[in-house]
C-alpha cells in the first residue's frame, strides 16, 4: 500500500474530504504543482484503483469503459476533456493546472488544491530524510554518516529537484581522490581541444582550490602562505577566475 506522510492542515482537509465521499460515485480532482505528491496521495487513498496517465488518451478512454473507479494523472494533458463520461464512476484525477475551468467544474464534484512543498516545511523535511536514506542505500553509502542539516534542500521543482540535489551532494561528498581524478579525466577527454587547453582546464584545479582555501581560512594572506605563492599572484588568480 502506498504510504503518505503529511503534517499539512490543508492536505489533512483534503484527506478528510475524500474519506467522507469515499463510498460515493463522485469524481474529484487534485490540482497543484508538479512533484508535490498528488499521485502518491491518490494511490494512498485509493490503493485498489486502476491508475492511468492523461498522456495516453486511448488508454484513459479504454480504462473508463472497463472500470468504475479510476485514478487519472496528468489530467491536463487529455484532449477533448468535455467529451468524457464520468457518470456512475469514481474518478480521482490529478493535474498540474486547470485548463478550462468550466469543463473541470462540470466533470468533478470536488476540486482540491494541494500546496507545494515550499508551503509544507515539515513534509519537506520528512521527504528529505527519506531521500537521504534511499540515496545512501542506492549509492552503497550506508556506513557513512552525513549531517542532514548540511545537505541542500532544493525545492525549485519540489521533490524532483530535492532528490537530485541530495543524490548529487552525497555523490560529491563521498568521492575520494581516485574518483575525483577519474571524473576530471573523463571531463577533459570529452572537452579537450583548441590551442590553449592547458590554461583553459587548469581552472578545474585552481578555482576550487582557491575558493575552498578562502572559505576555510578567510584571509588571502594566510591562504597565500598555505599555498606557497605570492599574495599578488593569488590576487591575480582570484581576478582571473572571477572569484568573489
TrEMBL record:
Name of the protein in question: Fis family transcriptional regulator
GO MF entry, a single one: sequence-specific DNA binding
Domain of life of the native organism: Bacteria
Signal sequence, start to end: none
Domain DNA binding HTH: 202-240
Amino acid at each position: 500500500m502506498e504510504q503518505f506522510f503529511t503534517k499539512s492542515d490543508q492536505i489533512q482537509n483534503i484527506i478528510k474530504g475524500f474519506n467522507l465521499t469515499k463510498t460515493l460515485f463522485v469524481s474529484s480532482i487534485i490540482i497543484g504543482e508538479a512533484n508535490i505528491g498528488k499521485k502518491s496521495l491518490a494511490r494512498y487513498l485509493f490503493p485498489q484503483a486502476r491508475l492511468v496517465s492523461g498522456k495516453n488518451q486511448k488508454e484513459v478512454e479504454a480504462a473508463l469503459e472497463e472500470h468504475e473507479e479510476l485514478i487519472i494523472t496528468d489530467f491536463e494533458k487529455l484532449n477533448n476533456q468535455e467529451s468524457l463520461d464520468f457518470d456512475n464512476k469514481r474518478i480521482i484525477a490529478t493535474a498540474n493546472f486547470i485548463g478550462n475551468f468550466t469543463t473541470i467544474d462540470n466533470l468533478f464534484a470536488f476540486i482540491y488544491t494541494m500546496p507545494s512543498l515550499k508551503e509544507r516545511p515539515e513534509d519537506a523535511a520528512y521527504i528529505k530524510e527519506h531521500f537521504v536514506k534511499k540515496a545512501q542505500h542506492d549509492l552503497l553509502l550506508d556506513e557513512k554518516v552525513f549531517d542532514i542539516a548540511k545537505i541542500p534542500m532544493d525545492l525549485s521543482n519540489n521533490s524532483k529537484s530535492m532528490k537530485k540535489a541530495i543524490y548529487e551532494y552525497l555523490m560529491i561528498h563521498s568521492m575520494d581522490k581516485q574518483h575525483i581524478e577519474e571524473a576530471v579525466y573523463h571531463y577533459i577527454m570529452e572537452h579537450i581541444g583548441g590551442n590553449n587547453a592547458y590554461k583553459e582546464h587548469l581552472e578545474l584545479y585552481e578555482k576550487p582550490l582557491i575558493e575552498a582555501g578562502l572559505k576555510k581560512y578567510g584571509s588571502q594572506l594566510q591562504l597565500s602562505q598555505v599555498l606557497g605563492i605570492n599574495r599578488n599572484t593569488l590576487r591575480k588568480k582570484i581576478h582571473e577566475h572571477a572569484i568573489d
